[in-house]
Amino acid sequence: MWEECRALQEYIVGLRRDLHQIPEVGKDLPETSAYVAAELDKIGIPYVRSEKDSGILAVIQGGKPGKTICLRVDMDALAITEATGLPFASRHVGCMHACGHDTHTAMLLGAGKVLWAHKDELDGTVRLMFQTAEEQSRGAEIMIENLN
Fold first, then answer.
1. What is the pTM of this model?
2. What is the DSSP pairing of strand 47-49 with strand 64-74?
3. Mind listing the domains of the chain with CATH numbers?
4. How far apart are CA 123 and CA 35, in angstroms?
5. Residue 94 φ then ψ, to 5°
6. How far does Cα 30 stand from its chain's mean position?
7. What residues have CB less than 8 Å from 62, skipping those under 6 apart?
């Protein structure tokens, strides 16, 4: 499985660069949520969308009984103007992924891809939680209330 993960490096970097270009602040993240949902659709992982924000909860049911674990990432950005000049810089004036949430989201999609490929070997359930509004401190509460 380690080699499978290493082989996904370019895929994950590509996801991160795509996400870096579309930063959104707060709990209303329509572009980011649509991007994550589209990627989950490509992989085949079932998910539900939060009705109160742009959060997503994907579920990988293992082939064997066992415990449930949740891997959580935040998707929101900061209200900062990016001036890096990078070819994948933010396209949204006044918003930037300056603290790694784009990377976290890309990594969880990559992990989800590997886990989905091995779902029959898994004991239990893995939940992939894509949370909004972490920077505003209410996102986790919304996700727990709405998607638990």
1. 0.92
2. unpaired
3. 2-147 (3.40.630.10)
4. 29
5. 85, 5
6. 13
7. 119, 120, 121, 122, 123, 124, 125, 126
Tens place of pLDDT per residue across the chain (148 aa): 788 889 999 999 999 999 999 999 988 899 999 999 999 999 999 999 987 788 899 999 999 999 999 999 999 999 999 999 999 999 999 999 999 999 999 999 999 999 999 999 999 999 999 998 776 666 677 777 766 5
DSSP H or E run through 82 = none
* pLDDT 10s digits, 31-69: 999 999 999 999 999 999 987 788 899 999 999 999 999
26: which residues sit within 8 A by CB, 6+ positions away? 76, 132, 133, 135, 136
- Nearest in space to 27 (alpha carbons), one of 61, 66, 54: 54
Q: Provide the total of helices (H) and of strands (E) in the chain, helices listed first.
A: 5, 4
Query: What is the model's pLDDT at position 45?
Result: 99
d(C-alpha 100, C-alpha 46), whole Å: 25
Q: Which of 43, 60, 56, 57 is nearest to 8 (CA)?
A: 43
**Helix, strand or coil, per DSSP, at residue 48:** strand
